Amino acid sequence: MEVxxxxxxxxxxxxxxxxxxxxxxxxxxxxLLDCGEGSQRRxxxxxxxxxxxxxxxxxxxxxxxVTGIPGLVQTMDLFSRERPLTIHGPEGTVDLIDDMMNMYxxxxxxxxxxxxxxxxxxxxxxxxxxxxxxxxxxVASLGFVLREAxxxxxxxxxxxxALGVPEGPMFSRLQSGMDVEIGGRKxxxxxxxxxxxxxxxxxxxxxxxxCDDFAIAARDVCLMVHEATFPDGMEKxxxxxxxxxxxxxAAVAKRANSRMLVLTHISPRVEDPVEMEKAAMEALGGPxxxxxxxxxxxxxxxxx
Length: 304
Hints:
Layout: E1 2-7, E2 21-26, E3 29-33, H1 39-45, E4 53-57, H2 63-66, H3 69-78, E5 85-89, H4 93-101, E6 112-116, E7 122-125, E8 128-134, E9 142-148, H5 157-162, H6 169-175, E10 180-182, E11 185-187, E12 201-204, H7 212-217, E13 223-227, H8 235-241, H9 246-256, E14 260-264, H10 273-284, E15 288-291, E16 296-299
Helix pairs in contact: 9-10
């Protein structure tokens, strides 16, 4: 599972940063988290094919998070896309995308499916369970937590041999979750498999004030991607506009026990994001904090 930070600015683009878009690439398919203006061009500059995008999760409807959708939809059509594209977002997303589609002479040559996701809703995308979390912004907004299913525990060949199971096909059957019979006695997978292991997980905040609900839903994630619109010292401005500072985002990640935090949606007024990330990490004592730059990428590894 790779995460590509295609656009990391907040509100307006800058020469260095495009508007918000994060790509989660897994098993050859891609989920976009928000889709700001210029996202399709950033996809073309990345290792991720824009035609691999099957789902877009919108945190809210502010322009800097959604204006890349019309161009992306049209380009996919010009590239002769046939697979459906599904867009998920808070209440009103169906109407928003309908309005965007009216920009064209007719619908694209493939299906665009749109879902209004209720707060605390949940759905599955290609083996990723997606949990929508209500967050605190100036408009209706959602964060998203993406979790893979647990994996089987590690196979213990010594335990299997002690129970009389010969190496070979019976080992494979037990690892696949099937029982085997040895001398009229049944051996079940639980006899030779360790505890189930957690899959990979990502939490994405969208735009929000520091939010307890999001921290709780994101408990123990491998990676948290949290907005950090304002530098430390601008807490009042952040509160007025429904955003977070660097240290506030780090505090959410610490409460969630996230293994790593990537800060994004960074205002152009932040002159030195690296200094801010260091200050946040030092003030809170972990997790590991990175201020994302456009085109950064991270490989999300299994917890074990």
